[in-house]
Amino acid sequence: MSAPTAVLFDTPGPKARRRTLAGSVVAGLVLLVLLVLVVVRLADRGQLDAELWNPLVNPTDEDFPVVWQRIGDGLRVTLLGAGLAVAASLVIGLVLASLRLSLGRVARTPLVGVMELLRGLPVIVTILYTDILLRAVGAHRGPLLSLVIALTLYNCVIIAEITRAGVQSLPKGQVEAGLAVGLTRGQVMRFVQLPQAVRAMLPALISQLVVILKDTALASIVLTGIQDLGKIADQLSGALDNTLQTYFVIGLIYIVMNLALEQIAKLVQRRMSGAGRSKADVPVDEGVRVTGGQNV
Amino acid sequence: MSVVTENLDLWWGGFLRSLGIALWGAVGSLAWGTVLAVFRISPVPVLRGFGAFYVTWLRNTPLAIVLFTMAFGIPALGINVSFYAFGVTGLVLYTSAFVCEAVRSGISTVPTGQAEAARSIGLTFAQTLGLVVMPQALRAVVPPVGNVIIAMIKNSAVVGAIGVGGDLFSAYNRLTSAQGYAALPAITGMAVGFLVLTLSAAGLLALFERRTVIAR
Question: Could you tell me which SUPFAM superfamilies the record lists for this protein (chain B) (predicted)?
Answer without folding.
Answer: MetI-like
